[in-house]
Structures are given as C-alpha cells and as structure tokens.
TrEMBL record:
PANTHER family from the UniProt entry: HYDROLASE C777.06C-RELATED-RELATED, SLL1036 PROTEIN
Protein name, UniProt field: Ribonuclease BN
Alphabetical list of Pfam families matching this protein: Lactamase_B_2 (PF12706)
Organism: Methylobacterium isbiliense
Domain Metallo-beta-lactamase as annotated: residue spans: 49-248
InterPro entries on file: Metallo-B-lactamas (IPR001279), RibonucZ/Hydroxyglut_hydro (IPR036866)
SUPFAM superfamilies hit by this protein: Metallo-hydrolase/oxidoreductase
Length: 292
C-alpha cells in the first residue's frame, strides 16, 4: 500500500476570501478581518469548490490566475447580493473561452440561478449580460436537502437553512474529514434544530453565520442571521471540533472582532472568527480510493 492517500495533496483545505456579510467594508479599522463579502474556497485534495461569489471571488481569481481548473463548480448558499455581485469579476475564469463555470442553487424550489443572475447582470445595472462573457456559464438548480453528485464521483450534501427566501448549507467529506458551511442562517426557538444537529454532527470544521452579538440580535430578529454563541451551542451539541464564524457585521471593527473572538475562545478554545485569506487545513486521515 502506498501512502498516496495520506499525502498532503489529499487534505481537505478551506480558504476564506470574503467573510463580511451584507455589504463590503473598508478602511483602517477593517484590515485584519477584511472587507470582502462571502467567498470560500474548498479543496478536497486538488478538487476545487467555490462557495458564493461575493466580492471575495475577485481576490480568489486574482490569487489563482491561470492555475484555476477549466471547470469551476460554484455553490451558492443563496442569491442575496452579498453572495453574487462578485461573479463577473473572477477575471481569470470569466475571460477565458475554454472555461466552464457551473453554478448550483438550492433555495429556489429546484430552479437554477440563471433568471436571477440574468436580471442582475444586465443593463442598466451591469454593462453586459453573462452570455456575452467569454467563459460559458452552466446553471444547475436543485432542492436544498438533496445530495449533489458530480461527474468525477465527488458528492456534496446539502441542507435547507432558515433565512429570508431560504439558503443552503453544504457538507464536504474528504479523506476522513468533514467541513460544513452553514450561512446564512437564523437560529429558531428550538436550538440547535435536530436536522442541523444531525447534518454537522462530528464535523472537523463548521463555518457558521455569527453576524450579530447577542446584544444586537433582538433588534435584528428576522433578518436571517445568528450569533457566535448559537454557533458554540450547535458545535458543542454536535461534537464538532472547530468552529469558524463568518458573515461579520460590516460595522464590526478589527478591535471589536478581536474582543468577540476572545469571548468566543473562552467558550470554545478551538473556535475562531474567520479572517480574509485565512487557510484551514484538515490533514487527510483516511486513504482516498483511487479514481475508478
Ligand atoms: Zn449574506
Ligand atoms: Zn442572505
């Protein structure tokens, strides 16, 4: 037996390119955590997934340049503006005629993102339509809760989340590791909800929407977001190893977020508030089957 399945390229690797929620922010008080809206790179070994196309996808594209694969699978949590407006600015991908960008959307009763994106990326809101862009877009619709099966045999599980118009949570399993993306979500009266608890149970990493503090939350009830405390409650109940809080409130400065992170780590030492460009490597601990 070779050690191939245990070598570094088989790790499950997460990289945050945008961790700000609702709208981007900038300025001297927002340098450490960053200002881009949601975009997360997930690598199952070499295999690439991108979650959300907030403004962070511009930085993602600029970083990887021509090293991006010819086919990019982009999984939308949902289509609110902070999760889609960067799409046309992932330049190395969209300017390449050989490239296919496959989008996946699960919160529209099975419809794809095509119609919504065609409304956004069209004059007068945007100078051209997506079909005028050199790369080819292929839009897939599914129902949150279904498992996505890709042609290379990789599967990604999904879950509907409580959010205005709904959102989709994702679970990636690779080489004995599990990482979940649970954003955007608002906690309910019963917390953690049994289906969510089951979905994230035993995960190595859960990325969770902790946009508001518990003090801010009552004034923002119904807006579709949660708190870091609810993330800790979920991860404790589900035996999750690491918690990464995402979708930071645009007005939360670096100083405030550092303070919140101290409180968070007092409750759960392995938890953190995600920073732009931060990478989390979950080393492979199971042999990956050879491709058939
Ligand atoms: Zn959002
Ligand atoms: Zn949203």
């Amino acid at each position: 037996m070779t050690m191939k399945g245990l070598s570094a390229p088989n790790d499950l690797t997460i990289r945050f390119w945008g961790v700000r929620g609702s709208t981007c922010t900038s300025g001297p008080n927002f340098v450490e955590f960053g200002g881009h809206t949601p975009c997360v790179e997930v690598r199952c070994g070499e295999r690439l997934f991108v979650i959300d196309a907030g403004t962070g996808i511009h930085a993602f594209g600029a970083h990887h340049g021509q090293n991006l694969p010819k086919r990019i699978d982009l999984l939308f949590s949902h289509l609110h503006l902070d999760h889609v407006t960067g799409l046309a600015f992932c330049k190395p991908a969209v300017l390449d005629r050989e490239r296919e960008i496959h989008t996946y959307c699960g919160n529209l009763d099975g419809a794809s993102a095509a119609e919504a994106l065609d409304r956004l990326f069209a004059p007068p809101l945007f100078p051209i339509t997506l079909d005028m862009i050199p790369a080819r877009f292929v839009h897939h619709g599914f129902r949150s809760g279904e498992t996505l099966h890709f042609s290379d045999g990789v599967a990604v599980d999904t879950l509907p989340l409580r959010h205005p118009q709904g959102a989709t949570g994702y679970r990636f399993r690779h080489a004995g590791r599990t990482a979940c993306y649970i954003s955007d979500i608002e906690h309910g009266e019963v917390w953690p909800e049994p289906d969510l608890l089951h979905f994230v149970r035993g995960a190595d990493l859960v990325m969770f929407d902790g946009m508001f503090t518990e003090g801010e939350y009552p004034a923002c009830r119904g807006w579709g977001h949660s708190t870091w405390q609810k993330g800790v409650d979920l991860c404790r109940a589900a035996d999750v190893r690491q918690l990464g809080i995402v979708h930071h409130y645009p007005q939360h400065s670096d100083a405030l977020l550092r303070d919140l992170e101290q409180q968070l780590q007092a409750a759960m030492p392995t938890a953190f508030l995600a920073r732009e460009r931060q990478e989390v490597v979950l080393p492979a601990r199971a042999r990956v089957p050879e491709p058939a």
